Amino acid sequence: MLPHTPSETPPANLNALAEDHYFGANPPPKDLEKHVALAKDFIDFHSAAGRRLVLVTSGGTTVPLEKQTVRFIDNFSAGTRGATSAEYFLEAGYAVLFLHRQFSLLPFSRHYSHATDCFLDFLREGSNGSVVARDEDAAKMLHVLRKYREARDKNMLLALPFVSISDYLHELRSIARLMRPLGPNGLLYLAAAVSDFFVPPDRMSEHKIQSTNAADPLPTKSNSPLNEPETFDNFDSSPAVPRSKRLVVDLDPVPKFLKNLVEGWSPEGMIASFKLETDPTILVHKARYSLDRYQHHLVIGNLLSTRKWEVVFVSPGNPDQWIRVPFKDGGAVKKDEPVDPKSLPEGEPEVEIESLIIPAVEELHTKYIKSVEERKGIK
Ligand code: PAZ
């Protein structure tokens, strides 16, 4: 059993201080105002209709190393979970605000982009110089096209991009606050792979970090590097590289804002977060720990290697619930433990696991709405 220390949770006023400090020090993305206006119209439209609305966050967040960013740290996420989930939420009647990493997968177009095949491989020349879908792809493409058009024409999908970790946090805070009028009909489904570390702006270089001193002022006799002994690191045995030529990246932890989200930004919406791990022995513990610490409504745990095959739902007052796509020849799968990745078939599952995740989230959301209404004596 790993140590369990919810007492590490900072008190509320410390959270508020950390929030003021972070959002004061890290400038908002240049399109924030425009995005807020679009999000407000979208949310107000669906709120007036009494419709459920889900904010789906998706894709990775970058960690810039320079203010005028040439280089950044990134993570693996392509946005598959988010884009696929968005389609199943639409199917379930939710309006979807899709906050995604720029150029990551989008609902509907995901079927034809970032694939091993180029989208042009799905097309052929028709008569009179027209371009049409290949016969074998036409039925699926028509289905996807109709769903896409329906979502667009009924104003059910709004996609807003972010790039860096601070863009993401600014956008999340603003949109979560706008969702308040939805009350419990609002759902936040946080599938983005959010960086835990960043370079604070006061330590960030304005310009591209240089790898040589060619841009330094010309040496005079007194500041000539020839006068300085080169300092060598001696902590590894590889051919020594002078410290002055190394790039040592020193990252601070990104403050954890889930508590602020739950208590301040969106106090009535249902909040479902994802927890990604690579070590199967700590997944459930970390998911439960997150739930205890932030007091939200659902943590969906998944492992990097098996995330398309199984996830675990950890929610207050309920036993852990494993959701798995059916697979053949899987050997004996223990009901309450992660599956052994070696027992999984090669390639992608035949069923998209999001087709099972979303109905299960929807069921919990329905229970959540009822419980809020009962508490308020509405029904
Ligand atoms: O984008 P993707 O489909 O490749 O990956 C999805 C995921 C693993 C990023 C997501 O399911 C998830 O766990 N998001 C939260 C990650 C975290 O910050 O712990």
UniProtKB/TrEMBL annotation:
GO process annotations (BP): coenzyme A biosynthetic process
Organism encoding this protein:
Podospora fimiseda
GO molecular function terms noted in the UniProt entry: ligase activity
Protein name, UniProt field: Phosphopantothenate--cysteine ligase
Q: Does the keyword Zinc-finger apply?
A: no
Give residue spans, biased composition: Polar residues: 210-226
Q: Which domain of life is it from?
A: Eukaryota
Where is the region Disordered?
208-239
Alphabetically list the UniProt keywords. Answer: Ligase
Gene3D superfamilies xrefs: CoaB-like
